[in-house]
Write a structure and sequence with these properties.
There is one protein chain. With 256 residues, the protein is mostly helical. It has eight helices and no strands. Helix 4 packs across helix 8 (227-255) and helix 7 (180-218) packs across helix 8 (227-255). It is globular, with a radius of gyration of 20 Å. Bound molecules: zinc ion (ZN). The site of zinc ion has 8 residues, from loops.
Amino acid sequence: MPLFIVVAALFGAVIGSFLNVCILRWGAEPKESVVRPPSHCPKCGIGLRWYDNVPIVSWIVLRGRCRGCRAPISIQYPLIELLTAVIWAFTFWRYGPSLEALRGAAFATILLGIAMTDARAYIIPDEFSLGGLALGVLFALAAGKQALGIALLGAAVGFGLLWLVAIAGEWMFKQEAMGGGDVKMMAMVGAFLGWQGTLLTVFLGALIGSLIFVPLTLMGKKKLVPFGIFLAIGAAATYLVGPAILAWYGAYLGTA
Ligand SMILES: [Zn+2]
C-alpha cells in the first residue's frame, strides 16, 4: 500500500479524535468551546493525558473505561475515529495525493459531524454548516474561476431550495417542519457538489428518509425527524456516484 494512504489514515484518525470533541461540544446546549477546558472524564473530572488520547488505541488499551473511575467510555469515540480514518484513506486512495482528495475527505468528515449532532440532539451546528460553506468556497477558489462559479451557484440553489421547503412545510403543517440548520447545511453541500448534485442530494435524502421514517411515524415511534442525517447520506452518495447517476439520467433523457 502506498505510504500516502497510510499517512492519510493516521491523519484521519487524529481528525476523527477532534471531530468527537466537536460533536460533543458544538452539539451541546448551550454550545461549549472545543479548546477549553481540556478533555476530561465527565464522571470523575480526571484530565486526559496524551496517552489516553491516542485515537482508537487508547480506548482499546483502557478497555473502554476511564483510567480514574473506571466509568465506561462510549464506543462512539473509537468508531468515529475509525470511520474518519477510513474516509481519509479512501479518498486519498481514490484520487491520489491531490487537492480533490483533501476536498472529498474534508466534505465527508463534515457530513459525519452533522449526521452525529443531528442524531444526538437534533442540532446542526453553524461551525459545520457555515464553516463548511466557507471551506467549500475556498476549495473552489483554489481550483479556479469556473469552479468558484459552480460552487456559489450550488450554495445559492441549496439554500434557496431548502428555504422554500421550510416555508412550504411551515405553511402546510402550521409548525416548523424543517430547521434553519438544514437550510444552512444544504448551502454548504451546494458549495461542494454544485446545483445538480444539490438536487440529487435532496432527492436521495428524501427517498432514504421516507423509507426509514414513514414506517416509524406510522407506528407512532418517532415524531421529530433528524433530516440532516439523510441529507448527509444523500450528499455522501452523490459525491461518490452522483456524476455517474447524472450522466445516466442525461443519456436516458437523450434516448427517451
Ligand atoms: Zn472518570
